[in-house]
Design goal:
By secondary structure, the protein is α+β, with helices and mostly antiparallel strands. It is built from 1 helix and 8 strands. The protein is elongated. This is Membrane-bound c-type lysozyme inhibitor.
Length: 107
């Protein structure tokens, strides 16, 4: 009986890991923007207050910061700032993606 229990523990733990991954995906929205320069796909996790996206072949994870207007996410170098259906991406205070318009926004 103990051998069966020992064998079942890794299976149960992997099930928990799969469940956590599933829940994480359910809490993440995929936002499609069309910017002046190119399209931008942003993964938004409201629960963790983060966004993830690829820019210049670099995977970026930005956490929500203070903003007087709209929503601002940053990692100290990059900033993703959105307000309504528009967004802008900055790198060290320089605009790198501008006039990003949300495609098929939720109403």
């Amino acid at each position: 009986m103990k051998k069966l229990l020992i064998a079942a523990i890794p299976l149960m733990l992997s099930g928990c890991s799969y469940y956590n991954t599933f829940v994480e995906k359910m809490q993440t929205d995929t936002l499609q923007y069309q910017c002046d320069e190119k399209p931008l796909t942003v993964k938004l996790n409201n629960q963790k207050q983060m966004v993830n996206f690829v820019y210049d072949n670099e995977y970026l994870s930005l956490t929500q910061g203070l903003s007087a207007s709209g929503t601002r996410y940053t990692d100290g170098v990059y900033v993703f700032w959105s307000k309504g259906d528009t967004a802008t991406v900055y790198r060290k205070d320089t605009v790198v993606l501008d006039n990003c318009q949300l495609q098929n926004p939720k109403r």
